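Standup notes
- DV: blocked on the single-chain target, sequence here:
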Amino acid sequence: MTTPEVIVIGSGMGGASLASSLAPSGRRILILERGAHLRPCAEDRDPGVIFGTDHFRSGEGWKDALGRDFCPGNYYMVGGNSKFFGAAMYRFRAQDFAPLSHLGGTTPGWPIGYDTLAPYYDQAEALFQVRGAAGDDPTEPPRNRPYPHPPVPDEPMIADLRRRLTALGLHPSAIPLAVDIDRWLAGGQTPWDGFPETRGGKLDAETAALAKALSHDNVALRTGCRVRRLLAGDGGRITGIEVDTPEGRETLTAPVIVLAAGAVQSAALLLGSADAEHPAGLANRSDQVGRNFMNHNCSAVLALHPLRRNPSIYQKTLALNDFYLTGGEDGTPLGNVQLLGKISGRILTATTSLPRPLAHWIAARSVDFYAMSEDLPNTDSRVTLRDGQVVLDWKRSNWPAHEALVTRLKTLLRKAGFPIILSRAFDRRTPSHQCGTARMGADPDASVVDPFGRSHDHPNLFIADASVLPTSAAVNPALTISALAMRTADHIRDTDLAA
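- DV (later): unblocked, structure below
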């Protein structure tokens, strides 16, 4: 490629979606990815390897607030973390964009409303070929068009669960999924939730968005390229990017730079690009870079009947949003409940201290749920750097609401015919939708980027990943990240690059 007009740092959900949307404009786009392509291998359907080892993880070490080392569950490869995602592609609820009172506090709201993002949700659902069914979810926001495809079908055990929950007056609904179920199962009889996409059955950032972008001759991808710092010049414009490549250190330039390395790494890169003019890091006049880190409050909840086996293969098709907007103390929100991919004995053995026979007995009889509650923004919950190493000081919020959600779910599952209920909260080693470290807003003194994702401080720098989310909501953010990135792409296309 000749000199690019746009450089995108990161090939995950945000970067790939932006590139796919901007590519038809003819702009020369170069995508930089620090990892490599994930190819089919014997380990990609092996639950013992996936859940019991760090085989697919980066091996990168972060520190917590107390200085303890830990290996995060983040992935650096083409497609980013989406290679392992559960493929749930939810729209944020309309109420998520306005200030909303929770048990743990009130969210700040967004500088845009749901109506602004709705057309881009339509585009993102089409790009990721989302399978779903409108009308069953009591919190679903207004839609301009139906889902591109019918929902992934319930397996028999889950169809029975749906009937049991409906009989309790609940409103079970189909999870909107970016999965070609026949193609996925042709590659192996396993769930997709937490399993890597290597054979085209899961529509992730690589197989959907990046593939579309790279179908254009004006888009190129370079792998093995780790960006070390951004360089700022006169007027605050980003004048270069220092990149470690397989051929050595290079400095690349382009009129427009898009940062899409993920909520933690985008913040770390901006902080690590500090210079004499910007001693607190780039894009950080507001002192908000790295702050407001959010990670959903999540628990696994397993419901068992000792005399009833669950032969489901993939399971992840049903959700409950009855308590998304209400149900807690004083009518406050509790969160979302959705099924996990089917837990196996090997997964339980790899992730718990249960004896192997007991783990297999439980897994053979369990229906496996994922309870998720909103984590509220907090300026002291943050990403920083210490001697170049990421330090993650996550200050979990709104936890009593999550405990109330899990308690409510357990009560309902017992009424639905499951006498044994087990639960376990996820810890900081499990990334549950990291977001918020470069929040968008209209006020340059209180936010990092404007409502289009453009830096308040650097006119040719955009951020297009989960870091710009002002709030985490309580549903999976992948579709919202994609929709925001597409909106940013439109803004780049319509903006004078020299401005």
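- Follow-up: The chain has a mean pLDDT of 95.
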